[in-house]
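Human
Can I borrow your eye for a moment on a structure tokenisation matter? Give me a protein, with the fold worked out from its sequence. Write it directly below this note and I will take it from there.

Assistant
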Amino acid sequence: MTRELFHKALKDLEDELLKMSGMVSEALNSAMTALEKRDMALSEKVVKNDIHINQKRFDIEERCIRLIATQQPMAVDLRILAAVINVITDLERIGDHSEGIAKISLSIGNAPLVKPLVDLPVMAGKADSMLKRCMAAFVARDIDTARRICNEDDDVDALYDAIYSELVMLMVGNPKIIKDATYLIWAAHNLERTADRVTNIAERVVYMVTGKMEEMNVSKY
């Protein structure tokens, strides 16, 4: 493989990475919409489609390994491939968190929610925005944006704290809702972990560009 073909292969990998992140973003938004609208069919679709996210991860990983084995890339090219392998792992886990929210929606079923969803959709919107901008930073090799996105994880953590505290107080006041309130806490936890995974991706952007691993904005959860 010539150098030109190798760089084209790297570009193709990035395109596949963006396709995967798009699939994950769609899963996240669909899961949240399904929870808000009590849409069981959409929840089932998110759960069913998670296998496609998993397969995309395996396909990209196999291509990375093949390039490493056959081309023996050095320096920055090797960092790109290493970063891609790590990013697809975090994207796959975000897909799992979205699937988790969809399964929570199915567990609640058609029963009314214990409280109107206010902060959960905001949380989901922030996490999705972080993901999309982080993937753009990956393509642009924009470490400044990547670092700023890591700092935004504090906003998601604060929303999780607020949701958790409110739901615990509701459970204290009415023990009959403990089960359904716990479902919403789990949904919030999935969103909090999603933002953490985006932070991991941002760290890989910094590593890819600088060659240095930096652990940024360590989660307290």
User: Anything to note?
Assistant: The chain has one domain: 3-210. The mean pLDDT is 93. Residues 3-37 form the longest helix (35 residues).
